[in-house]
Design a protein that fits this description.
It is built from 13 helices and 19 strands. By secondary structure, the chain is of the alpha/beta class. It has a nine-stranded mixed β-sheet. An eight-stranded mixed β-sheet has the order 14-13-12-15-16-17-18-19, sandwiched between helices. Helix 6 runs parallel beside helix 7.
Amino acid sequence: MHKNTFSVVMTQVVHDELNSHLVREDLEEDLVFALWFPSYGDKRLTALIHCPVYPDEGDRQRHGNASFNPQYFERVCGLAMEKGCGIAFLHSHPFPGWQGMSQDDVVAENKMMGAVAAITNLPLLGMTTGSDGVWSARFWLNKNDGAYERKWCESVRVLGKNITSYFNNSLIAVPEFSEMFSRTVTVWGEDNHADMARLKVGIIGLGSVGGAVAMCLSRMGLARFVYIDHDEIQVHNLDRLEYATRNDLKLLKVDVAKRRAEEISTASRIEIETIPYSVAEVEGYNAALDCDVLFSCVDRPRPRSIMDHFAYAHLIPVIDGGIDVRFKNKRFSGVDWQCQTVGPERSCLECLGAFTWDDVATEIEGKLDDPSYISGLPDNHRFRRNENVYPFSQNLASLEVLQFVALTTACGGQDDFGVQRYRYNPGVLESDTEKQCCEKCGKSKLLATGDTHYKLSGRDAGSEVARERQR
């Protein structure tokens, strides 16, 4: 395991449970263990806090500070071995804000790190919460010489209907204020902007919708991006890609979008990683796991199924949108576009009908990139309805960005727009905030398990066809 950065994420439910136990009215410290599963991105290791393991009677001692007895640690080790996961040691400090470590904290974690690494083959995760519920976290990594090195996490994120991020300011600095985005910040405030701007945002698909999202977020002052798209700019894209011109034909979408985003960014410093692969391929898949929030701007079932998996198993919220243009007797008859945010406490993409596993299987077989298969489908088949125009894309992109603002800031008291659908006929925007997964849905069982049960990356026929065309 050679990762450059580290983070932690947990559901809002787990966060509330842990803080209810750790943050005491008498201001004494307390402790608890938890189990975590790893999420391995390209550059980042993220600990997915799966479940707390609360102390039984006699498992710990509280004396202003807190300490645990051997049987508690042994029980936790047994559970970690049984489930094949890592061990986190969490404790509280009686004052607010991001917490460092006292010498007693270091000694306590040093006593466990070797045993934890040997038993789980994963590093010990240490976490501290302040009296206001703010988290800090660190991994203890074996340097292969018998010594262990502390690696501070860049952030701890809490995901429910909203995402709350606790950043390590020494690793990800608060962004510099700029007059260029001063009016933007007026809406949701400097603190919200500082948190929003430091999130790593992945945009999957840099077509008409994804490109518009990317440009909008750059103008808003966001600073950390991953662009994932295997395709190049073609003539038929130019009526819909706001960042591209005739001079960009045959260039990769991610490269052209990056160049334009850097030109228009209002951030003092912008970082954009470009990944010219599908999210279904290992390069795109792992790069997406480095992100804190994902925009799903794709029109195929397989990428959507993967991002549905990310939203629950890896606790990365996904903002998804799609456009359905309809024709009757070869004449335009109507269009709907829909967007939604998926993750814990929200309905998944599968239950919303954004994809089916039969369609995913069809794509994996390569049929969606087989002209003979597509030409044999009825004219009104969903795989042949790929028409779209610039104003449709712009409206959908705007709705997706507003979903992102609600998710990250809850400004104006609006924290969840639900499932939004715009109907061109008769020109209305519908919203459903009550939509839930069906009873048979198994996504809740995947929460915070990472790729423990399955990994969805592999070969992608569409990407391979595109790379062959680009040669």
